[in-house]
Write a structure and sequence with these properties.
Blueprint: H1 2-26, E1 32-40, E2 45-50, E3 60-64, E4 70-73, E5 76-78, E6 89-94, E7 105-113
Parallel strand pairs: 3-7, 4-7
Antiparallel strand pairs: 1-2, 1-6, 2-3, 4-5, 6-7
Length: 114
């Protein structure tokens, strides 16, 4: 009887951990959220005005992509930024560090645009 209770407890614990992991993955944990205010198609960059920056000096930030960056626009994978995305909301996951320029610059790991 003790083994049965112990086994059921283990199964329930594993189910609970599995469910909480799935919920965490579906929640947005983007490094940057804001509105695209400028698109530089030639250099494949976007300038984002952040909704709630940690530091007012980083209210705007340039986001670039490299060959590994993932861009999703309106649910479809894209290879570059187009001028049609200006004024749209974006969520960005940063690949490495943010360069302390003015405005700051970063390379995106992933960009999701509405």
């Amino acid at each position: 009887m003790a083994k049965l209770v112990s086994g059921l407890t283990l199964v329930l614990l594993l189910l609970a951990v599995g469910c909480s992991s799935q919920n965490e993955q579906t929640q947005s944990d983007a490094d940057i959220s804001g509105t695209i205010i400028e698109v530089n198609e030639q250099d494949n960059q976007i300038l984002i005005e952040q909704d709630n920056p940690d530091d007012p000096a980083t209210k705007q930030i340039w986001i670039s992509k490299d060959e590994d960056s993932e861009i999703v626009i309106g649910g479809a994978a894209e290879s570059k930024f187009a001028s049609s995305i200006k004024n749209k909301k974006a969520e960005v996951w940063i690949k490495n560090l943010i360069a302390q320029s003015s405005p700051p610059r970063a390379i995106a790991e992933k960009v999701i645009i509405e």
